[in-house]
Each structure stands twice: as structure tokens, then as C-alpha cells.
Design goal:
Helices cover about 20% and strands about 35% of the residues. It is α+β, with helices and mostly antiparallel strands. It is globular and about 55 Å long.
Length: about 200
């Protein structure tokens, strides 16, 4: 995770973070190729001291997450609903109060032709979402977003984060990366819905 340039026209103040999840074996600082990336995301915190009627507050969080999926998962009709549920579940799990949430889930099918015909078809899922945090403390929102990036990559949330008391701050342990298929590593309740449909 690292700070990235924030958009300058959306609010008087903004900060942005980017994160990428790679397959095992990509060392920090090593240049991975595109095949090594499991998921990528952006977390943008906007602040307008004057407030915004559209935001229903003075802060707004804008996120973007993208991950490549296997074809049988990417074509599932419930995928968009499940992606939105991951957002809501992550915010609720981290007790990150919010309001005025909205977003889109998009599937992108890539098919190759001509000299690229040997490439396998791929399907990406993108979730673009924004919401207004219920307070100025956005730590729980950032933790929820980082868990969502891991979920999109097919990883379980970081250890110690699930069902923690609101007043505790556990040590974070990085869970070893696992390769797709993504269904095998998603939350069991959501995947039961996805697989049974």
C-alpha cells in the first residue's frame, strides 16, 4: 500500500492510497508482470469543510477495486450483487459507520484475436463505490477497504480482524497469498449463494 496522487477537482482536500495484491513469490520492490497481480485498488478520502448536500457530510470516501476472475465465476449472474455485499459486510465487520453509499459493479470480458488469439479469455470485476463516513475517524473504513481488496484477490481477511471488539486494536498478521479460484477463499456464506445459483 502506498500514497498515490489524489484527484484535485473533487474536493478542496484529498488523500489517496493504492494497493495491489500479488501471487506468492513476488518480492517487495520486485517488478511483477501483469499475470502476477490478483487485485488492485484505490482508496480516496475527500474533505470539504463547507460540506456537500450530495455527500451528506464534510468527508467522502471513494474506492475502486479490480480483480481478474476465472470465467465460470466471472459469468455468474450474482457477481455484482455479491461484490456489493462484500463492501457492506466489510464496513459492518469493522464497525465503520456510513451513510449515502452508492456504487457500481462492472464485469469486463476480454477476448483476444489475430496475433493475440492464443491468450485465454479473461473476466475482470470492478467495484466503484463511495460513501460518507459517520465520523471523522476513518481508520475502520481503511481497514474494511483493505480487507475488500484481499477478498477480491481471493484471500481471507487479515487475521485478527474479524469480529473484534470496537475498542480493541489487534496486531495484524499477513495471511499467505493463495491463487484463484477465488470462490475457494471467499466468505463461506457468500460463496454458498454464488455456487448454488
Amino acid at each position: 500500500m502506498e500514497e498515490i496522487p489524489a484527484p484535485s477537482r473533487l474536493a478542496p482536500y484529498a488523500v489517496a492510497l493504492g494497493a495491489e495484491v500479488f501471487t506468492p513469490g513476488v518480492a517487495p520492490g520486485q517488478e511483477p508482470d501483469d499475470a502476477d497481480e490478483l487485485a488492485t485498488g484505490r482508496f480516496i478520502l475527500l474533505h470539504d469543510p463547507e460540506g456537500s448536500a450530495l455527500w451528506d457530510g464534510t468527508f467522502r470516501i471513494v474506492t475502486y477495486i479490480r480483480a481478474q476472475l476465472e470465467a465460470d465465476i466471472g459469468t455468474d449472474a450474482m457477481l455484482g450483487s455479491v461484490a456489493w455485499t462484500w463492501l457492506v459486510e466489510a464496513l459492518d465487520t469493522h464497525r465503520a459507520g456510513y451513510r449515502a453509499a452508492g456504487g457500481t459493479a462492472t464485469r469486463i470480458l476480454s477476448e483476444s484475436y489475430g496475433s493475440l488469439a492464443g491468450r485465454p479469455d479473461s473476466i475482470d470485476i470492478e467495484l466503484r463505490a463511495s460513501w460518507t463516513p459517520a465520523s471523522e475517524d476513518v481508520k475502520a473504513h481503511l481497514e474494511a477497504w483493505s480487507d475488500m481488496v484481499c477478498t477480491f484477490a481471493g484471500l481471507p481477511p487479515l487475521a485478527g480482524r474479524r469480529q473484534r471488539p470496537a475498542e480493541s486494536t489487534p496486531e495484524l498478521t499477513v495471511v499467505p497469498s493463495r491463487r484463484h479460484p477465488a470462490v475457494a477463499h471467499r466468505s463461506s456464506q457468500l460463496m454458498d449463494k454464488l455456487v448454488s445459483s
